[in-house]
Amino acid sequence: MGVQFVILRFLHELATVIWIGGMIFQAIALTPVLKKMEKNQQLQIRNSVVKIFGRVGIISIAVLAITGIIMSVGKTNSGISMLSSYGTILIIKHIITAILIVLSMVNAFAIMPRILKITASGEELKVKKAKKKMMLISFLNPFLGVAIILLSAVLAFLAK
Question: Which end of the chain is more exposed for a tag (fewer CB within 10 A), N or C?
């Protein structure tokens, strides 16, 4: 567990902060500000944020996956069993992370484009339903992110 592990752990934590921190920022700061704006302006800003943050999110997820796999292999090779409490919590963390990734991708690549498309068609009821789905996922994601961070803290404690 030398310098390489520290660098991997740093990159893993940095990617986590960027990805989950961005979701929390959107939920706590961006969404309330957008609610005070006119609907078309809200949509344009949210679409721009999704495009920019989507790219950052994908890079963060890639860094998390690569560093996480390397660290997990290192842990199991050092004698930590996946059947131990450490392994169980790690698996739960990975399941929650997978759910979070899927929900984020659904929001960015399915729901947001759908909202843009149906807004142009003027179908207000469909727009409203799609926005509700987007807001539900946008509300749920930060909680899942915080759960991941909590599980990471538990894993750090168990690794000692």
Answer: C
The 10s digit of each residue's pLDDT in 19-71 is: 999 999 988 999 889 889 998 888 889 888 888 888 898 999 999 999 988 98
Length of the chain: 160
State the total domains in the chain.
Answer: 1
Burial (Cβ within 10 Å: 0-12, 13-18, ≥19) of residue 145:
buried
Helix, strand, or coil (residue 160): coil
On whether the CB atoms of residues 90 and 84 are closer than 8 A, the answer is no
Structure tokens at 27: 């939920």
Report residue 101 as tokens.
């990734």
The model's pTM: 0.83
Q: Left if phi > 0, otherwise alpha if psi is -120 to 50, otherwise beta: which for 122?
A: left
Is residue 33 classed exposed, middle or buried when 0-12, 13-18 and 19+ CB atoms within 10 A define those classes? exposed
Q: Residue 60 sits in which domain range?
A: 3-158
Asked whether 60 and 15 are in contact (CB, 8 A), the reply is yes
